[in-house]
Design goal:
8 strands, alpha/beta, Rossmann fold, about 280 residues
Amino acid sequence: MNKLIPKIYGQYFNFLALFSKRRAALATFEVFSKVRKGRVLPQQKTYLEEAKDQILEIENHTIQTYQWSGKRETVLLVHGWESNTFRWRNLIAKLKDADYNIVAFDAPGHGNSSGKNLHLPLYINCIQAMVDEYAPAHVIAHSFGGMALLFNEYLRPSDYIEKMVTIGSPSEFRELLGHYQKLVGFNNRVLSAFEDYIRERFGMEVDNFSSSKFVANNHKKGLLLHDRLDILAPFHASEKVHAHWKGSRFIKTKGLGHSMHQPHINEYIVHFLEDKPIIEKH
C-alpha cells in the first residue's frame, strides 16, 4: 500500500496535466512540499517546553524559537526535513558545556510551529528572521536545513555569521525533483509544468537551486560532514559543495547514517567553532 499510494498521485497529476498544466503543477507542488512527520512527540515535549523563547511571525506562520543561554557567541541550529529542534539535543549538551548561547527554531509544519507545508524559499526566510533576531556568529544545519542555510547566505550574505556547518545535506534541487518524479511516476509533461511553476512563483530555474552554485563566492569558514552510506542525502552532494567552497573542510564518515548524532561528530563541530584541531576518528 505504501508503494501504491505515490503511484496513485502520479497518475492523478498526469490526468490533470491533460486538461490544465497549471493545476497539475499546483497539485504536484502541494504534495511535494507537504510535511508528514516532525511534530513534537510525547517524549520530546518536556525538553522543548523548558527551552521555549519566543514566537516569530513569518509569512503567516507562527514560528517557535528556543534558547539555551550562554556567555559565548550565539550558535543557531537549523534542523532538516520532517524533524524539529529536539534532534539537536546531543549537540546542545556539548555546546552548553562550552558555554555558547544557543538558539533554534521549528520550521513551518514542524515541531511547535504552524503550517502543513515547507519549501526552500519559505525556509530561508525563517532562517533570515532568526539571523536578524539573534545575530548568530555560527550556524549549524542538518540535511535540508543545510541547503536552506547556504541558499540564504548566497542571497543575503550575513555580517554576523562567521562559520557554517552542514551535516548530511543535499545539494541539487534537480536531484530531489528527479527522485520525486521516479517515486510518484508523473510524466515529463507534469515535470515541465512543475518547472514553469517554480520559475513563475520563485523567479528561479530549477537547476539554479544548487548548493554547489550557492557557495561559489562564499568566503566564510565551513565544515561539511557527510556519511558515505547516507541513503537519504547523496554523499556526492557534499563532495560537490566542498569542491566549490574554498573555505570549507570536508569530513567523510562511513556507517554513521544520515542523522549523525554521535559524540565524536559533535566534538568535531565544537572544535571547529573554537578553532581547535580536529583529529578524525576512522
